[in-house]
Amino acid sequence: MLVPMRASSLITAVAVTAAMSMCSPAAAAERSILVLAPSAEDDRIEPVHEAIAFWNDRLEEVGVQTRLAEPRVIVDSPVERTLENYARSVAQRGVRLPGGEAEPDAPEALTGLGADIVVLLSRQDILSYTWPLPRVDPPRYLVVIRLALGLDRGDAMVSRHVVAHELGHALGLLHNDSPHTLMCGPCQPLTSEPDETGFLPLTDAERERLVALHGRP
């Protein structure tokens, strides 16, 4: 999560610990992505495309085969309400989350979608986070992108950094303590400057971790 909140940090820490245990060099080379959007005009759709392109460039740079597929976008899905309820439930349990077998199963409406990564462009002003679906094999993730109601509402740079940050967690990266990098936690967005890619940078350690998790051919 690209916000300096203790609850959100705990959610992502739990999620990524699980995600790292499920990533391996033998993982599929392409990860399918499904985006659920409230409307075709949602201003977070384009940042999703930009964040995916960013990660595919970085994955190519470090020499691994894993890629994020071109997303399939579904507008006003009939399963959206169920997913919104699940997303809120996970966010609310963030500071007291049971682990392991105690974690409730994800709803069938979510697991039945079949994508490796489901990005929910939420209608709610809740935490943005990445969540590994419990007891699902091969591993799948729910990425929740909140509906911003503050000053950053509609800011494409903020949106694409939030999406890219959460997709980084789905690829197995943790938070770092460098406040001006993409995977920061907490962050200092007002004093951060993107690099030549248009995004905040990755650290050398994160590039090494991508190779360790996803392997080289």
Structural account:
The protein has 217 residues and is an alpha/beta fold. It has one domain: Collagenase (Catalytic Domain) (3-Layer(aba) Sandwich). A five-stranded mixed sheet has the order 4-2-5-7-6, sandwiched between helices. Helix 2 crosses helix 5. The protein contains six helices and seven strands, in the order αββαββααβββαα. The chain is 36% helix and 12% strand. The N terminus is likely disordered. A hairpin with an 8-residue loop joins strand 6 and strand 7. The longest helix is centred in the N-terminal third of the chain and has 18 residues.
Shape: globular
Topology as H/E string? HEEHEEHHEEEHH
> Number of helical segments?
6
**Poorly predicted sequence stretches spanning 5 or more consecutive residues:** 1-7
Tell me the span between the first and last alpha carbons: 31 Å
User: Which CATH class is shown?
Assistant: Alpha Beta
CATH superfamily: Collagenase (Catalytic Domain)
Biggest pleated sheet: 5 strands, mixed
Total domain count: 1
Record field, number of beta strands: 7
Percent range for helical residues?
25-40%
The overall average pLDDT, rounded, is 85
| CATH fold name | Collagenase (Catalytic Domain)
- Approximately how much beta-strand content do the residues carry? 5-15%
Which strand order do you get reading across the main beta sheet? 4-2-5-7-6
